[in-house]
Every structure is written in C-alpha cells, then in structure tokens.
Amino acid sequence: MIKTSYQNELLFASSLQKNSQGTDVRRVQEWLCLHALRYPKAALTTALDGQFGPATERAVQNFQVVSKLPKTGVVTPDLFNKLSSPLSTAFQLQPTEKDVRKAVVRVAKMHLAQRSAEIQTDAAQNLGPWVRGYCDGYDGSPFKWCVGFVQTILDQVASAYGRSFTAIMPHTLSCDVMAVSAIETGRLIKSAVIRKTPQKIRPGDVFLLRNPSNDDWYHTGLVTAVAGNAIETLEGNTDLKGGSNGTAVFARVRNIQTSTIDILSIDGL
Questions:
Q1: CATH number reported for the structural domain that contains residue 70 in this entry
Q2: How high is the pLDDT of residue 228?
Q3: Contacts of 176 (CB under 8 A, 6+ apart)
Q4: Is 269 domain-assigned?
Q5: Which residues form the Peptidoglycan binding-like domain (predicted)?
Q6: Which domain, by its residues, includes 16?
C-alpha cells in the first residue's frame, strides 16, 4: 500500500498505567472515546490530555469490563491491540473478489462496519487514528478526510492485486485535484451527462459533489449501488445531514437529479 500511515496507529511498545503521560496515553484516550460509540452504556469517554490520571484509569477499567477482561486499569500491548482492533480489521482486509468493483464495495463496507469516525474537541475537529490513517499521518481541523477515505479504499484494493491506485488518480487529499486530474484523463463524467444516462454510474466509482456556481468540488465518496436516479454511497467525514465536514463514515442515498454529482470512473484500477 501507498497509504501506510495506519501502521503507526497500531504500534504500542510498552504498558501504561496511572501516572503515565505522553503521546501514547493520548492515543489510548482517543480509542476509549471512539469505543464509546460501540458501548454507549459504558463510561469510556475521557479527556485527551495525555495524562493517565484517575479518570483515564477508570475508563480503561470500564473498557476491560465490557471486553470481559481483568479489571486492572493497566494498558498492555495486548489491551491496546484490543482497543485498536477496529482499525487493524478495516485496514488489513485483503479482498479476494475477481471483480475489482465488488472488492471496492466490500472493503468500504468493512470500514463502515468498524465504525470509522473522527474525534472532536473544543479546540479542533477531524482528529484521531482513523483520520491520521486516511490522511497520511495528519489530523486536525484543516484535514477534511473524505478524499483520504476514498483513496485508502482504492489503495487497499489495488495493492491486493499488485497494482497502484495512482494509475487512475494522483495521491492527494483534495477533491479539486482529484477532479481536475479526472477531467484531464477523461475519467470524469459530469452531472449533466449522468442525469441523462444514470446507467453510466457503476458500483465502485467515485462520486464528487460540485458547487455549480464556481465548479468547486467539495466532497467525495464511493458509489455502492445504483437504482435509477438514486445512488447508494459510502463516504467519510460526513454526517446524518450529508454534510462535507462531518464526523464519521456513513452509508447514504443521494439523488443525482437534485444534487450536482460528477462521477469519476475507476475503470483500470
């Protein structure tokens, strides 16, 4: 894979416990907050301050309880592997489908199933291990991660078959860069064409939302199914409203007649 920053999110050298401090403590705190989405009845959310105080210790113990592990409050490498297992499960899935488009859809659905999401604080959004994995090690408010999500899925699939996703698009975090390149290579099918011939859209293709007033592409995701004028999608950095700077990976349905949606074909991936 080209996008290998996720591997750094799985490294954890030594045990941590009360009074520990530093970057690895913050990483533990991030995963505790992310698991609060999986275990809403458990008190897991804690501050992201890099300080292993009594609150973090209690949150670790609560995670151990819901995981049916001894309630030690100590984060060993094995426990960190448990905390970070959603990311390793999603990023390390090796598709075996002969149809590359089916492989793209399956890998994307695995990221959805593992509850890929960002973390937000009072100071910033677009934070956490999922964002860093998608965005080549970067996170923080400037890093809208919808492109990173799309390219990670394409990278996973292409590399499984000994190919590179950069054969069909540049390695980037920008919707505009991806769209302009697709225009230059003849891969971009504009909304006006799509509205007349929806059958040109195929599962696995990349959709791009465009502001028709200034031709600014501002959000992207993957098409998972096509039903007439409706497409089903999987997209990162969105929300229940379909926004372009949301909180997680969501499955959505979008109407190609009421939104300006361009399509980037993945033929040749």
A1: 1.10.101.10
A2: 95
A3: 216, 217
A4: no
A5: 21-83
A6: 5-85
